Amino acid sequence: MEDELNRARFPVKRGDGSFEVHARFDVPTTLGHDRLRQTVRAWPDDASDLDSNEVLTDLVGMPHTVSVDARVLDVVFEGRPGSTMWKGWMVRLTSDLIASVPEARFLGFWDEVAGAMHQAAR
Q1: pLDDT of res. 55
Q2: Which residues, other chains included, contact 5 with Cβ-Cβ below 8 Å and sequence gap of 6+?
Q3: Are the CB atoms for 103 and 36 separated by under 8 Å?
Q4: pTM of the predicted model, to two decimals?
Q5: For residues 27 and 71, is the Cβ–Cβ distance under 8 A?
Q6: 12-57: per-residue pLDDT in tens?
Q7: CB 60 within 8 A of CB 106
Q8: What is the pLDDT of residues 64-89, one digit of tens each?
Q9: Domains and CATH numbers, the chain
Q10: How far apart are alpha carbons 32 and 12 in whole angstroms?
Q11: Residue 108 region by backbone torsions, left for phi larger than 0, else alpha for psi between -120 and 50, else beta
């Protein structure tokens, strides 16, 4: 029962209160992978209304990408304990990626600590 309750919370937190959530994308082409990676690397510098110091108040580091397999690419958000704006940063970058990399299909949010897709993504 307790395991089910923990999985219902998003995201599941580590013992120290930190967490890790991935925005998962299906990207069928190498060019799409490159465009998505470049957009993530350039963010938030390309967004004139964002300050990387503000982002780093909530996240351990800037979001980065990892390959899950040949088609699936994750954007990793590692949150600090007690962070309050992390969802805003995650939604903002995910929305920017959906708009700027049309060949990338958003699959949902993967909770790395829980080892499962967020329920709303199913």
Answers
A1: 85
A2: none
A3: no
A4: 0.88
A5: yes
A6: 999 999 999 999 999 999 999 999 999 999 987 776 666 777 888 8
A7: no
A8: 999 999 999 999 999 999 998 899 99
A9: 2-121 (3.30.70.100)
A10: 30
A11: left
- Classify residue 90 by its DSSP letter: H
Please give the single-letter amino acid code of residue 40. Answer: V
The whole-angstrom separation of Cα 31 and Cα 15 is: 39
Strand partners, 106: 25
Report, in angstroms and rounded to the nearest whole number, the Rg of the chain calculated over CA atoms: 14
78: part of which helix (H) or strand (E)?
strand 72-79
**First CA to last CA distance, the chain:** 21
Local structure of residue 27 (DSSP, 8 states)? -
- Strand pairing class (64-67; 105-111): unpaired
Amino acid 118 reads H
